[in-house]
Amino acid sequence: MTGLDRIVSKIEDEGRQHADAILSEAKAEAERILAEARERAAKKAVALLEKTKDEAARKVSVAKSSAESITRKRYLEIRNAVMNDVISAAYEEIEQMSDADYFDLLFALCVKNIEKSECVLYLNDRDLARCPADFEDRINQTVYETSAVQVAKEPKPIENGFVLVYGDMEVNCTLRAIFDASMDLLKDRLSPMLFD
């Protein structure tokens, strides 16, 4: 081998060694970069997993709260419907009372609702026809110190109960008006009997 061949061979060897060193450094740098990327990816995966768990827990909480709200609302609707049914049944039972019991109820309502004055008590057609002959006297014997009641001979177009008329003022004592005015009180009293 000539001197020139040796110099070329030496340069080639040095070039290869230099290339191998660069390649080795590049591989080391690539491994370091890859390791850092894996570490960042692992941290991101953990963070994403935590975020997903938190989001899932939030969605479960919202769904549970929504379900509880719907259940509570439905319970109140059913409870209200049951109380309305009981009140309607009580109303119908009053309408089905015997004449004597019905007029005892009207008597009690009249005495409770009468003002200290003279008035006219109006009934509907059906009630006027079945009104006991002593109904007016019975009322007046009870309220004679403060009031006087006259049962009108002509009917008023009402469903049931009566209307008291004091000149220009009327007091609606129909059963529907009394039930409607007392609805909240009736429900307050029914609730513990039905649901507690």
Description:
This protein is of the alpha+beta class and 196 residues long. It has two domains: 1-96; 98-195, ATP synthase, E subunit, C-terminal (hypothetical protein PF0899 fold). It is 73% helix and 10% strand. The chain has helices at 3-95, 99-113, 125-130, 135-143, 175-181, 183-195; strands spanning 118-122, 148-151, 162-166, 169-173. Strands 2-1-3-4 form a four-stranded mixed β-sheet. A hairpin with a 2-residue loop joins strand 3 (162-166) and strand 4. The longest helix is centred in the N-terminal third of the chain and has 93 residues, at 3-95. The chain is rod-shaped. The model has no long low-confidence stretch (mean pLDDT 86).
